[in-house]
Amino acid sequence: MLEGRIQKHIDLLIERYPVLSRCVQDIESAYLIMEESYENDGKLLIAGNGGSAADSEHIAGELMKRFKTPRPVTQEFAEKLKEIDEERGESLAKNLERGLMAIPLVAHEALSTAYINDVDGLGVFAQQLYGFGRPGDVFFGISTSGNSKNVMSATVVARALGIKVIGLTGAKGGELAQVADVAIKVPENETYMIQELHLPVYHCLCLMLEDRFFGKE
């Protein structure tokens, strides 16, 4: 059973998007996997193609800074900033926000294009996951079909490293749903309709995580 302040985000999601009611259990399970990772100083590694690549960066943006809730730095860190540089430290102490580490594997153009040029495109996410990933992290793979080859290659590396896999797919789920620890399969089959439901799902997850780590009890 989720805390009320966490559960309220799922309740609002279903109120606004009743069609996602069949995904509730998987959304909860995905949240708990990410919560456990962040509690143990882990991070989220996110990948997808096309619109799902944009979603990968969007998720990182919501987690790495304030989404809705203020996330001021700790008083201890604020004091350290001021000790190092009184003027800049004062400004940084006021403006920096605590983040939940999230790395979109779609955002490193030099690395990605070098790998694609030197090797191939299928391992472009797998290579980054191998470099960035550590046991206890979470790989969040987004694929409307569930069959994106470069996402699937990354899941192999994730599982070999002891990294849990969350899949966000369409209704069919594809291969990704078969190998993921949790697969959130939104009930649509047309690509753009799937993507339209992916956004409220990951917004909900980001809100839940933010409330857990930065909200008031």
Descriptive overview:
The chain is α/β, with parallel strands linked by helices. The chain is 58% helix and 10% strand. The chain has one domain (4-69, 99-214): 3-Layer(aba) Sandwich (Rossmann fold). The chain has a 5-stranded parallel sheet, sandwiched between helices. The longest helix has 24 residues, at 191-214. The radius of gyration is 18 Å and the shape is globular.
Summary?
The protein has 217 residues and is α/β, with parallel strands linked by helices.
| Strand order across the largest sheet | 2-1-3-4-5
Q: What is the overall shape?
A: globular
Amino-to-carboxy terminus distance? 16 Å
Q: Beta-strand percentage?
A: 5-15%
Number of helices: 10
| Corresponding CATH architecture | 3-Layer(aba) Sandwich
Total domains, how many? 1
